[in-house]
Amino acid sequence: MAGKYSKTDSEAHERAVEEAREQIRAELEAKSGKTSGKTGKKRSGKYGMYGGGRSGRLIPFIAGLIIGIIVGGLLLLLIGNASQTMMFGTNHTTTTNADTVFQQGMLGTYTAADFEKAILGEAVRHKELVVKEQPIEIPTTITRAGLGNLQIFSKVQNVYYFGTGVYTISLSDLDEEDVVVDEDAKKVTVLIPHACLQYINPNLDQTLFEEAGKGLLAFGDIKLTTQEQNSLQQSVTDSMRERLTQEDMFLGADEFAKVSAWEIFFPLVASVSPSYSLEIRFDENTMHRDLTK
Fold this sequence. Notes:
The protein is α+β, with helices and mostly antiparallel strands.
């Protein structure tokens, strides 16, 4: 009996526990259903289309974050452009004729007109550019015939006259055709006129007189009248001109003319574009001239 009772009690106990579990499970499911219904009602009323709870609040937060990032990026871009304008100035875009533009680089855009303006502007300042001053010496012999043109009564004296020949070129006559720009060779060529003899300046103060040679019966020094002195000086000037207008003298003056013109114009070319060289040539339509007459 005791063993049978014990078995019966055990089964009753297990059934009671199982019934309790079923009752608790039913109560929990019923409670869960009520809560879910109330929560769904709140979502519909309070949050509208976005739903409720934690996930409902996350959607508008993300949308606001994206809008903020876009607006912030636009503001940074505008501030960056403004800063660049303040530091480097406003950018200007210009269009020019392709026939006139021959270089675009770090230093800017240059045209043939830029070189012409610089060179011709400086040329106007040099109406007559002195390119060479050529010293010259003319020896002369003065003879004073004596009585009957006999040598025994005659006097002879050697005189050395000095002077200077001044050669010039006229830069004021240069125009646009005299400035040639070679884009491919990056070279500017300036055509200048040939040198001309502009002045002859006798230096009478430097005249040297040798001791006169005299015949045995010749006495005193040679004395010239005013007319004879003027005639002698004119003869000396003519002799100087004859020498100064010879071809070798003009060619020498031309070489000095090229150097002088290069020294004047090269800084102007370099100021427009240091990458360009300068060549000085002669305008073959010009010639050597004597402007002293």
